[in-house]
Amino acid sequence: MLNIEADRGARSRSERLDVMQRLGRAMADSTRSRILLTLLDGPAYPSDLAHDLGLSRSNVSNHLACLRDCGIVLAVSEGRQTRYEMAGGHLTQALLALVDITLDADESAPCLDPECSDCGVGA
């Protein structure tokens, strides 16, 4: 079982800061956030993500590389294809909880990105 308190004590402040920055970088982009939301529902192939999200395969692949480099998703080779999935069940649960907690905190909070079409402000 994961012992969060013990892990937290063993990690340096700079390690935790690095993780926070990687998560922030990953989620700051709306395309990466859309990919993450899709992967929270289960593993997917880049071609399926591209089709489902209305994006080019190369665009999705570039964003998946970023998410993989940030340690948020895993690439699993399956013959000639690569399947992407969340890096672990704890991360999936944490991201789902983060979204729910943020929505519960203030659903009326405006999106700060004027170009954002997902939140309805820029639309």
Task: Give a structural overview.
- By secondary structure, this protein is mainly α.
- It has a domain at 26-92: Winged helix-like DNA-binding domain superfamily/Winged helix DNA-binding domain (Arc Repressor Mutant, subunit A).
- It is built from 6 helices and 2 strands, in the order H-H-H-H-H-E-E-H.
- It has helices at 4-10, 13-28, 30-40, 46-53, 57-69, 89-105, and strands at residues 73-78, 81-86.
- The longest helix is centred in the C-terminal third of the chain and has 17 residues, at 89-105.
- The chain is globular and about 40 Å long.
Order of helices and strands: HHHHHEEH
Task: Please give the order of strands in the largest beta sheet.
Answer: 1-2
What summary fits the major beta sheet? Answer: 2 strands, antiparallel
- The rounded Rg comes to 16 Å
- The CATH architecture name of the domain at 26-92 reads Orthogonal Bundle
Average residue pLDDT: 85
Distance between the termini: 44 Å
Instruction: Describe the global form.
Output: globular
**The CATH homologous superfamily of the domain at 26-92:** Winged helix-like DNA-binding domain superfamily/Winged helix DNA-binding domain
Helical content stands at 55-70%
Low-confidence stretches: none
How many beta strands in the DSSP annotation?
2
The CATH class label of the domain at 26-92 is Mainly Alpha
What fraction of the residues are assigned to beta strands by DSSP?
5-15%
Classify the fold: give the CATH topology of the domain at 26-92: Arc Repressor Mutant, subunit A
**Count of individual helical segments:** 6
Sheet/helix structural class: mainly alpha
